[in-house]
Design a protein that fits this description.
Blueprint lengths: L2 H9 L4 E3 L2 E3 L8 H5 L6 H5 L5 E3 L6 H9 L5 E3 L2 H10 L3
Parallel strand pairs: 3-4
Antiparallel strand pairs: 1-2
Helix pairs in contact: 4-5
């Protein structure tokens, strides 16, 4: 991915990716064209998995972790205290 493509994703509201699907703070895909070329489980398939486990490390992953939880993309989260505290703070805003 080029620097320009990364900037465009940020301008579109992307906070990170889940299995290559770039999502905004609400867990919605931000670039449908890019997403159509992504080879991975679709987000609706991930959300339908009974026991989907997400692992997030590094405070910079707080926003995408919040988005994944908000969108119901995981039922179990394994993370560190900094992300947990950040995500809990985001859920109160």
């Amino acid at each position: 991915m080029t620097d320009e493509e990364q900037l465009e994703l940020q301008r579109s509201g992307a906070v990170g990716d889940v299995l290559g699907h770039y999502i905004d703070r609400s867990g919605r895909v931000v670039d449908l064209e890019l997403d159509s070329r992504t080879i991975a489980l679709a987000l609706d398939q991930i959300g339908g998995i009974r026991h989907a486990i997400a692992v997030a490390v590094g405070a910079e992953k707080s926003e995408v972790t919040y988005a994944a939880l908000y969108a119901g993309l995981c039922s179990v989260l394994i993370t560190e205290s900094a992300i947990a505290e950040n995500v809990l703070g985001m859920s109160q805003t």
